[in-house]
């Protein structure tokens, strides 16, 4: 192995960057392999704010792999050079079954955060339920704020954090936040990021957002004079929208991105409804993408409760790929699904879609375990085989099928948002964030 050029060794190790067992093994082989292996091993650190006995005994369901604060603190004390390898830091808070006591981590977290100077990606997750910022100890709060306002972060994610704007508002200090390009706010108090008193406005390239009144907060963010972050130059937008959102306002927001947006992902969800009450039934979603002249790819997630959920608006000629994940009932008759309407919607615009390369229909059979943050369905149609389902869908979509653009596949999991194992989030009413 010592005869191989270092560049070849690095390529081999880079190829296994997701295989932690292989990386641990190669890091012990020789000095020539150790540097690259350790760079991959420690580039992303996940800190678990769980009791060590829970981590060791695997008593927390869906626990992501990671380090407890005391363990990682001891590791940095023994091997301080590891701190310079950490590029991405993710902090996960405990499950709702155990009360949050961040004071237990006050001796460790400030020291850990102060040593991580090269972090460019940061995530703080509230765990399976939305966690109030006020539940953190003052030392825990100060350590986090000091960390993310003094690092050149490129990606910042808050997931399931109900934050007080006056406490957590990231008011720019000098060049703080100037490197930020991706912002994600999921099940988070959105007001805490749209207002500031002084400093320059930071342009974003990518925004992921899901929570109460998403459209309202997106349109508020357009008011450049009050927004900390400028969303007018977005190239990528990922959003969870309820069908009761004001799509006229959302279309207006999309119009503001006409010259920049290249990738769009929308998960159109439904609140719980009373089948016998017409006033609670979904209204038709009118989504207009025709003004997005630079849009190249779109990914839509819809529920097959009727053709009203198909986004009937126009599509720009620049579009290259379209993916639509349709969530179905396991016993749903294929003929009752909106394939023909979908075929017509896209087929009528094919003449203008000169750049279109593919349309992918992903079929997901949802169960009571299917949620935005956690999907363990892994079921198939109870009446028909996959081949029969695919054939039936193709018959219902002749315009796309005959043009050779259509591909169909079964997806055992819906698109996932938020922390792993976040079972308790959904839409419960206007007074709450998404909770299940």
List keywords for this structure.
globular; alpha/beta; two-stranded parallel ribbon; 13-stranded parallel sheet
Can I get a quick summary?
This protein is an alpha/beta fold and 436 residues long. Helices cover 25% and strands 19% of the residues. The chain has helices at 6-15, 20-27, 31-41, 52-57, 69-78, 109-115, 138-148, 165-168, 214-221, 247-256, 339-347, 386-396, 398-402; strands spanning 44-48, 67-68, 88-92, 121-125, 131-132, 155-159, 161-162, 182-186, 202-203, 206-210, 229-230, 236-242, 263-269, 297-303, 321-329, 358-366, 406-410.
List the helices and strands and how they pair.
Layout: H1 6-15, H2 20-27, H3 31-41, E1 44-48, H4 52-57, E2 67-68, H5 69-78, E3 88-92, H6 109-115, E4 121-125, E5 131-132, H7 138-148, E6 155-159, E7 161-162, H8 165-168, E8 182-186, E9 202-203, E10 206-210, H9 214-221, E11 229-230, E12 236-242, H10 247-256, E13 263-269, E14 297-303, E15 321-329, H11 339-347, E16 358-366, H12 386-396, H13 398-402, E17 406-410
Parallel strand pairs: 1-2, 1-3, 3-4, 4-6, 5-7, 6-8, 8-10, 9-11, 10-12, 12-13, 13-14, 14-15, 15-16, 16-17
What does this structure look like?
This protein is an alpha/beta fold and 436 residues long. It is 25% helix and 19% strand. It has 13 helices and 17 strands. The protein has helices at residues 6-15, 20-27, 31-41, 52-57, 69-78, 109-115, 138-148, 165-168, 214-221, 247-256, 339-347, 386-396, 398-402; strands at residues 44-48, 67-68, 88-92, 121-125, 131-132, 155-159, 161-162, 182-186, 202-203, 206-210, 229-230, 236-242, 263-269, 297-303, 321-329, 358-366, 406-410. The chain has a 13-stranded parallel beta sheet. The longest helix has 11 residues, at 31-41. It starts with 5 loop residues before the first helix and ends in a 26-residue tail after the last strand.
């Amino acid at each position: 192995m010592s005869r191989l050029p270092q560049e070849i060794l690095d390529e081999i190790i880079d190829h296994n960057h997701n295989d932690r067992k292989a990386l641990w093994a190669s890091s012990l082989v020789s000095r020539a392999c150790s540097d690259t292996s350790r760079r991959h091993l420690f580039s992303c650190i996940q800190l678990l704010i769980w009791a060590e006995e829970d981590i060791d005994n695997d008593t927390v369901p869906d626990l992501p792999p990671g380090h407890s604060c005391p363990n990682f603190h001891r590791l940095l004390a023994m091997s301080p050079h590891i701190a310079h390898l950490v590029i991405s830091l993710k902090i996960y808070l405990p499950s709702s079954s155990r009360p949050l006591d961040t004071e237990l981590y006050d001796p460790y977290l400030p020291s850990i955060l102060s040593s991580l100077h090269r972090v460019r990606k940061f995530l703080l997750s509230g765990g399976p339920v939305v966690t109030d910022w006020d539940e953190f100890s003052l030392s825990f709060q100060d350590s986090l704020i000091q960390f993310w306002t003094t690092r050149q972060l490129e990606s910042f994610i808050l997931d399931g954090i109900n934050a007080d704007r006056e406490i957590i508002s990231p008011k720019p200090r000098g060049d703080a936040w100037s490197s930020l390009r991706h912002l994600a706010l999921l099940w988070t108090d959105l007001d805490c990021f749209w207002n500031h008193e002084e400093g320059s406005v930071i342009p974003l390239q990518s925004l992921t957002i899901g929570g109460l009144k998403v459209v309202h907060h997106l349109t508020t963010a357009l008011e450049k004079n009050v927004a900390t972050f400028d969303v007018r130059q977005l190239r990528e937008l990922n959003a969870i929208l309820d069908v009761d959102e004001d799509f006229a306002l959302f279309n207006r927001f999309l119009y503001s991105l006409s010259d920049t947006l290249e990738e769009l992902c929308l998960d159109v969800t439904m609140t719980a409804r009373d089948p016998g009450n017409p006033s609670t039934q979904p209204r038709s979603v009118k989504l207009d993408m025709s003004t997005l002249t630079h849009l190249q790819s779109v990914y839509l997630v819809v529920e097959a409760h009727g053709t009203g959920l198909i986004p009937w608006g126009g599509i720009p000629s620049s579009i290259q790929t379209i993916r639509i994940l349709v969530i179905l009932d396991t016993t749903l008759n294929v003929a009752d699904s909106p394939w023909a309407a979908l075929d017509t919607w896209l087929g009528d615009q094919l003449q203008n879609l000169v750049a279109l390369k593919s349309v992918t229909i992903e079929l997901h059979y949802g169960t009571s375990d299917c949620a935005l943050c956690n999907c363990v369905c892994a079921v198939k149609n109870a009446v028909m085989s996959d081949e029969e389902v695919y054939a039936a869908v193709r018959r219902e979509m002749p315009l796309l099928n005959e043009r050779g653009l259509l591909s169909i596949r079964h997806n055992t999991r819906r698109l996932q948002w938020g922390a792993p194992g976040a079972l308790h989030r959904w839409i419960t009413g206007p007074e709450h964030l998404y909770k299940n």
